[in-house]
Amino acid sequence: xxxxxxxxxxxxxxxxxxxxxxxxxxxxxxxxxxxxxxxxxxxxxxxxxxxxxxxxxxxxxxxxxxxxxxxxxxxxxxxxxxxxxxxxxxxxxxxxxxxxxxxxxxxxx
Length: 109
Hints:
This protein is of the alpha+beta class. It has a single domain, classed as Orthogonal Bundle (Arc Repressor Mutant, subunit A), CATH 1.10.10. It has helices spanning 5-13, 21-31, 40-52, 76-99, and strands at 19-20, 56-64, 67-74. It has a 3-stranded antiparallel sheet. Strand 2 (56-64) and strand 3 (67-74) form a beta hairpin. The longest helix is centred in the C-terminal third of the chain and has 24 residues, at 76-99. The protein starts with a helix and ends in a 10-residue tail after the last helix.
């Protein structure tokens, strides 16, 4: 199951454990080296889709300073899909390196 980049980054953000929406937004920014910035609408649309696919679930809800927070976590299926997609991307990057005749560490100068 190939994932969109945003979905992949959201799942990867949750790999260390449950996060609420803002935590996911910040983790995705960090993981993408500030390249991907999710708005709330985009994030919650993606989380609803991932939840519908059985990849994430709500594991906790609370109210903090009058604001409702939902914490999301990977399901077992979500962790499997994340691992498979990571393997696929690793193979793709290796193929790209080979086709470009680049050696490991080629991007460091």
